[in-house]
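Re: folding output
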Amino acid sequence: MIKRAISKLLFTVLLIIYIIDSCFATNPNSVIVANAIAQIGESYQEGQPPNKDYIYGAVFDIVNWTGGFDCSGLVSYAGNLRRHYSSEEIISFTTITTWNNIQSGDVFYTSGHIMIFDGHITESGVAKLKVIESVGSTGVREHVYINPEDINYGDDCYLAVNNYVPYHFRSDSSSPVLTILGSQNEGVFNSDITVSFIARDNIQTNQYDPYAYAEYQGTRFLTKTFSADGVYNISFHAEDWVKNTTDTLHKITIDSISPEITVTDSLNRLIPSGTGGTQDTYLCVSASDTATGLAKLEIYKDGNIWFQDSKYCGYLREDGLYTVKACDKVKAKFKTDFSRRIV
C-alpha cells in the first residue's frame, strides 16, 4: 500500500513537471535567466540590439549589431523574443503577479526601466531579490534589491519607492493566422490579380506584430499585382513574439490568351478555316494553351455538339457545317477558329 502511494505520488509529480514544461515551451521564462547571465559584463548601449525589416514587423538585426544592450534589449534578447521590444511592449506579453509569487525569469517594471528576476537570497538576515539588468552606469550586471515584501525597510526599498511591479510572462504556443486576400489558392484568372494578406496573432502589441510577408522568386512584399500570363507560386510567412510561425504556399495562374486551334489533313498539312470539302474528308483537330493547358475541345455540326475531347483525328462523313471551339481552364476563354462545310 505504501509503495503504491509513493509510486502514485511520484507519477503525479512527474506529470506536473511535464505539464509545466509543456506550458512554457514557447515562454521566455524557461530560458531568460540563463541567457541574461551569459550577457553580464556587456556594455550599456541605447537601442541595442537593433531591429530590421520594420515594413514587415521587424526582427533582430544581429548582423549589424555592434554589441551591448539597453534594459529592454536585454530582456528581449535573453527571452529569445523575435525582436527588440520596448519595455512597455514587453509588459503586454505578461500578466501582473505579486511579490510573494514571483518566479525566476519574471520581470520587474517601472516606467523607464525593466529588469529580470534571478532568485531570492538573504544577506545579513535581510530578504533580497537578485536581478539581472542593463543600466547606463555599469552595463549588464547582477544586482540585489530589498524585497518589497519586507515592510521594515520603508524608503530603503528601492523597488517599492520607484513603483516597480512584478510581471510573469505569458505562455504562448499559438501560431499567427494568415488570411490571403485577392485570390483563392489554385485559382485561374484571365486578368490582373492583386495579392495581399492579413496576419493576426492572439497576442499583439501594435502594427509591428506579427512579423509577416509574402515572397515570390526571392522578393518579399506586402501587396503585389501580377499581370503577365503564367503560373505564380507565392509563399507566405508569419511569426509572433516568441517565434511561433505560420507558413503557407499559394498558387495562382493568369491566362488572358485564348487557346490556339490547329487543323491538319492526313499529310499533316494545315487546312485553312472556311474551306469546303467533300465527304470522307480526313481532319486532325487539336488545340493548345501556353498558360494553363487545354481544358476542352469541341466540334459542332450544324450548331449541335458532335465531338468533345482533347483531340480529334478522323473522317467527316456527313454533310453539314463543322465548327471547332476550344476552351482553356479560365473557361470564359472560348475560341472559334475553324469552320468547314462538307457537301
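--- second protein (sequence, then structure) ---
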Amino acid sequence: MNFTFRENPDGSASVICSEIENMFHTKSETEFTLYPDKAYADRALQILEKAYAMDETDARVLYELDLLKKRMGIAPETRLALLDAHLDLVHSRDDLLLEYITLQNLTGRYEKALELIAGHRFHPWEGGEGKVPEQYLLANVALGVRNNDEARFLAAYTYPENLGEGKLHGAQENRQNYYLGCLLEEKARILKEKDCLSAAEDAMDKANELFLKASSGISVPASAMYYNDQPPETIFYQGLAWKKLGNDREAEHRFDLLIDYGNAHMEDHVSIDYFAVSLPDLLVFDEDLDLKNRLHCLFMKALGLYGKGAIDESRRLFEEALSMNSNTFQIATHYALLFAK
C-alpha cells in the first residue's frame, strides 16, 4: 500500500491511501482530510482497518491497529477477538505476542498467558523492558490467589531464561511476598485447628518473615511515566503487610500517602522530557498524558481507600478509571485481584 501526504491551504492535511492489485492491476484509492488541533481517533481507526483489510499478512499494521484500539479504550475482549483470528501474525512479532498475552491476563485467562510465555523466547526491545516479566509475574500471582497455590507464588520469584531479561537488582517483590504470606498465615490457622502446633508456628514464622519483606521499600508515591518508576501498588502492599504485622500506624501512613498524592495531582498537566528514555510504551500514537495521569491518581486513591477499609468507595474509583479505559493494566488486574473473589 502507498501513502501520499498533501498539505492544504487551510492548514489541513490529506492522506491518500492507494494500492494496485497484482492480478488485474486494479487501483483502489481512498483520501482522508485531517484538520489541525482536532483528535481523529475514529478516523485513524477507519484508515488502519482499511489498510489492514488490504493486506491481512502485514503484522506491523495489525500491531498498530491493536495499539490504537488499546489507546481508544476498546474492550480487551474485542481486541482479543481480532488477534485470535490472526494467530500466525501474532506469533511473528514479540510486541504483538506480548499484547496478546497481556489480553489473556486482562480477561482472566492466566493459564493461557503462562502457556504462551513458556512457548516463546523473547528478545527485549527499547520501550519493552520489564513488560514480559510483568505478565509472567501477574499470571503466577493471580493464579496463586485464585487457587491458593503456593507453587504459583514461588514461581514468581524466578524468571525463566526465555523471558529474555533477568530480574532487576533490588526488584520490589512486595506483591508476591504479601500474598504468599497470606497463604502461609491461613495454612498456620488450619494447622493450629488440627492441633499441629509446631507446624502451625513454623508456618506463621515464615508468613511473618514474608510480611516483613513486603513492608519494606520506598514509600514515596510518584508519577508512572517511566518503566522503572515506583509503582503505587508496592506502597499499597507495604501498608497491607504492616497491618498483618500489627503496626496500624505505619499501614495508615502509607494508605494516606497514596490518597493524598492522588488528590494533589489529579488535575496535573503532564509532559514528557524531550530527552526522556525508558518510556514504558511504544509511541506510535500520541497519548493523552493528562488522562494517563488521572488514571494513575485514581488508582493510587482507590488503593489507599481499600487499605483503609473504604471498600465501596475504592470499588467506585476503580470502576470510574476502568470506564475511561479498560485496558489500563494495573488498574484492571488489581480490580480482579481485590474484588473478583
